[in-house]
Amino acid sequence: MIKKFCLSLLLACALVLGLSLTPTTTAQAATDHSLTAVQKKGTLVMGTAPDYPPYEFETTIHGKTQVVGMDVAVGQKIAKDLGVKLVIKSMSFDSLLVALQTGKVDMVISGMNPTPARRKNVAFTHTYYQGGYSIVINKSDQGRYKDKDSFKGQNLGAQTGTTLYNESKKQTTGTTIKGMTTISNLVLALQSHKVAGVAMEKPSAKAYVANNKQLVMIPSHFNLSAADTSTAVAFKKGSTALVTAANKSVDQIKHQDLINKDYLPAAGQYLKTNTVNTSMWHYWKAFLTGVKYTLIITVCAVFFGFILGVLLALLRLGHGGLLQTAGRWLATAYVEFIRGTPMMVQVMFVYFGLGLIVNLPALTSGIIAISLNSGAYVAEYIRGGINSVDAGQTEAARSLGLTRTATLRYVVLPQALKNIWPSLGNEFITLIKDSSIVSIIGVSELIYQSNIVRSDTYRGVAPIVVIMVLYFILTFTASRLLNHFEKKWQHA
User: Fold this and answer.
1) Does domain 281-490 have CATH number 3.30.450.20?
2) What is the mean pLDDT of the chain?
3) Taking the model in full, what pTM does it have?
4) Record's superkingdom (predicted)?
């Protein structure tokens, strides 16, 4: 009797548990439209950081710059199997997962290790490649360093946001770990002796050493059991259907050994093509593209920033009723907040934060962020310029019958603009240089293009010299034009 009762109780519990779990599972499956959404739009957007050969890097094909590499081939395989077109979005490595979580990209393929910490925030496919760690050093130090334990008292570089960076900090003692956002920056730091070595994935280390005779590779001797050196494709959390579909492609890649048979050899051919001609003139189109986007961002930011600055200045100068008081407080709060936060944070907030509401392109987001930032500073310039106009000018205009608006438009603002023109000119020149910040979200301005050229050619200093000259030409030309107009106003 007791046995029957216990058996009945167990069956009842199993039935209740099954009923409670079934709707949840069904509901989750019903709400997972990740695969159908991708197939409906016809594109699969892949986020990557193309500065990590042979995983992903840029090359020139038929006069056009394209992202290529082993990871790109993996992405193309997945997109082809899904029956959609692959679209590649480039950005810094440490921005990739944020872009995935905010819907800027559908997947991330960038030599990414599926660590437990990352699995809490994104979904991973099966692993498609098992790598390892090596350390790249200057050839002149070949007898000095043997492995990771040889860098005590020295600086060891690693790319921030990567598993290797975290493991370098955990598995070394007495060594300072220097983190940078790109491998090309780390290699430049190595060649300029800012770091003694750079820890990186073995395929990337082989690529840099093969194309730079001043570098050599040494074993790292990292404890690989404590670190996941495999790479996988990352998808947004909850994209079960999409992950399942991608796993079929990944399994085929592993079963047919496509990485070693096809993808890595093809990447090697592109690397050889990049190093055939590493002159800066060969990359003039890349630098021209950088100049174009730098000017687009600067001109748009100046235009919209000036309009916003005028509105904010007028609101801050408003007195009287409740509405004007509220406007003054709101404008003051905006100016203080914008001036009190870094522009880089503002750029990332507009691109990723507002991306949760509306999917803005990287260029548009960069223009909006820099315009909003510039508006706060321009507002203070204009407010100071208006206050610098003698109060007698306003009184004389009003005594002649001009309205307050007409007085502001025809009397005060022209004089204020003349007074603040040097400050506005400085703001314009500053914006030319500050436009470089948008490279973190993948806008192809000068800094972004120089990083790509450095990773493609394995030359660290030459691209920097080129963009320094280009920035100087832009700022010097702008300065001469502004001085020309300033002199005309002085004699007017």
Assistant:
1) no
2) 84
3) 0.72
4) Bacteria
